[in-house]
Amino acid sequence: MSEELNKEELLSEMEGHLDEETLFVVSQTFKALSDPTRLRILNLLCSDEHSVNDMAESLNLSQSTVSHQLRFLKNLRLVKFRREGTTLYYSKDDDHIMNLLKQAIEHAKHN
């Protein structure tokens, strides 16, 4: 029975039908990419990991703003962090999204 259900779900996706959870995650991802501050943070994280302080300085933003946006991005699994002492270092967590971001930037710069 479950094998039949999996085949039905696969056929549905192949035919272009998306389940509600997938639709929600995709819409939240585009919401994340629609904010200029989050775009700046993700672009910075494309190349290397950074602490909140580093990002705030580099992007001329408050630590509070950076932390707030990172929380949103972390909840979507677009960024991840590691702790070193009391400092959190953030890095990209999804190469698919970073590639999408790079393509969007290239598109915007293309004349």
Structure, explained:
It is built from six helices and three strands, in the order αααβααββα. By secondary structure, the chain is α+β, with helices and mostly antiparallel strands. Helix 4 (52-59) packs across helix 5. It has a three-stranded antiparallel β-sheet.
Key descriptive features of the protein:
single chain; 111 residues; 3 strands; globular
The shape, in one word, is globular
| % residues in beta strands | 5-15%
**Helical stretch tally:** 6
Please estimate the helix content. 55-70%
Strand order of the largest sheet: 1-3-2
If you average the pLDDT, what whole number results?
88
Structural class: alpha+beta
Report the span from N to C terminus: 54 Å
Radius of gyration from the CA trace? 17 Å
State the low-pLDDT regions, or none. Answer: none
Number of strands: 3
For the largest beta-sheet, the strand count, sense and barrel status come to: 3 strands, antiparallel
Q: H/E element string?
A: HHHEHHEEH
In short:
This protein has 111 residues and is an alpha+beta fold.
Write the layout of secondary structure elements.
Layout (H helix, E strand, L loop, with lengths): L1 H13 L5 H14 L2 H10 L4 E2 H8 L3 H13 L3 E6 L2 E6 L2 H15 L2
Antiparallel strand pairs: 1-3, 2-3
